[in-house]
């Protein structure tokens, strides 16, 4: 496996692979890898000839009071883990390498970014689209792999790829969970022992809401029961908990066939997100 830190080095590999007519799978990450990332890479390995994993903590998707500086970083550890799933190249650029110039042009994520995580993180998804679009141009992937845990992010990226004719396929991989149901996340390391015990109640709440909605078709009641469960079982503060259509992220109607049940909860100082995507049959 090769670790490269410059765009020129990455493009040399990409050009060679493309010249051989081989497919490329891209796994964009911010590092501090866990089983979720490795599942993405393993899926990419099975479906492509060549796998590129990017490891880059992207400053443009962090707000002024968010955890950019303290976000966990350990490239040496990540390299060892990536080797276990046969990643071919890790692209680990500096901020200066990724953003050497700023001509003032910005990408606006639009309506889908103004709800859920985007409501409390203005500009976050603009920054996501900025870095993702750069990675798509640099890696020229046949397929790019994202986890369902970031369901809103995936929906927004899918919209950009569709509406702006990016020549690649977006592949979504189901959430990887701990034994007790907690969605795996790099931020889980922030949880104290007590907070870690509370955190699985988030997934429990989503399951309660899903079963209630499938039984009653009552969005408000389903959401209310989930909120009550989190409030009763944790000391957490709910940022949002909503049931929407997916992937367009609109209000549920009688015509809706695919649903996103999504939440963000602060357990202590750690913001945890989770979701369920399901259809009318469950």
From TrEMBL:
Pathway the protein takes part in: Cofactor biosynthesis; (R)-pantothenate biosynthesis; (R)-pantothenate from (R)-pantoate and beta-alanine: step 1/1
InterPro entries on file: Cyt_trans-like, Pantoate_ligase, Pantoate_ligase_C, Rossmann-like_a/b/a_fold
Name of a matching Pfam family: Pantoate_ligase
Reaction it catalyzes: (R)-pantoate + beta-alanine + ATP = (R)-pantothenate + AMP + diphosphate + H(+)
Gene3D superfamilies per UniProt: HUPs, Pantoate-beta-alanine ligase, C-terminal domain
Positions annotated to bind ATP: 30-37, 147-150, 176, 184-187
Gene Ontology molecular function: any one: ATP binding
Residues at the active site: 37 (proton donor)
Key words, A-Z: ATP-binding, Cytoplasm, Ligase, Nucleotide-binding, Pantothenate biosynthesis
Annotated binding of beta-alanine, by residue: 61
Keyword Endoplasmic reticulum set for record: no
Enzyme class, broadest EC rank: ligase
Binding residues for (R)-pantoate: 61, 153
Cell location: Cytoplasm
GO CC entries: cytosol
CDD domains, per the entry: PanC
Keyword Transferase listed: no
Quaternary assembly: Homodimer.
Membership in a protein family: Belongs to the pantothenate synthetase family.
Function: Catalyzes the condensation of pantoate with beta-alanine in an ATP-dependent reaction via a pantoyl-adenylate intermediate.
NCBIfam families registered for this protein in UniProt: cyt_tran_rel, panC
Protein name: Pantothenate synthetase
UniProt source species: Ureibacillus massiliensis 4400831 = CIP 108448 = CCUG 49529
Gene: panC
């Amino acid at each position: 496996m090769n670790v490269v830190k410059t765009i020129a080095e990455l493009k040399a590999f990409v050009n060679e692979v493309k010249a051989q007519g081989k497919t490329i799978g891209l796994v964009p990450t911010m590092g501090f890898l866990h089983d979720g990332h490795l599942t993405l890479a393993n899926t990419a390995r099975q479906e492509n000839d060549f796998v590129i994993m990017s490891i880059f903590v992207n400053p443009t998707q962090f707000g002024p009071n968010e955890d950019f500086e303290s976000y966990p970083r350990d490239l040496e550890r990540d390299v060892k883990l990536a080797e276990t799933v046969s990643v071919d190249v890790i692209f680990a650029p500096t901020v200066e390498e990724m953003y050497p110039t700023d001509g003032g042009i910005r990408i606006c994520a639009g309506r889908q970014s103004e709800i859920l995580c985007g409501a409390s993180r203005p500009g976050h998804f603009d920054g996501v689209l900025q870095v993702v679009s750069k990675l798509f141009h640099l890696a020229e992937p046949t397929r790019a792999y994202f986890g369902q845990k970031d369901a809103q992010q995936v929906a927004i990226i899918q919209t950009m790829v569709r509406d702006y004719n990016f020549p690649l396929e977006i592949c979504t991989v189901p959430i990887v969970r701990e034994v007790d149901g907690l969605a795996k996340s790099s931020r889980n390391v922030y949880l104290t022992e007590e907070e870690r015990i509370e955190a699985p109640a988030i997934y429990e709440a989503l399951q309660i809401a899903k079963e209630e909605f499938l039984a009653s078709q009552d969005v408000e009641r389903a959401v209310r029961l989930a909120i009550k469960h989190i409030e009763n079982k944790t000391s957490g503060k709910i940022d949002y908990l909503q049931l929407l259509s997916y992937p367009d992220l609109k209000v549920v109607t009688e015509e809706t066939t695919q649903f996103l049940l999504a939440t963000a909860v602060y357990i202590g100082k750690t913001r945890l997100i989770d979701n369920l995507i399901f259809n009318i049959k469950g």
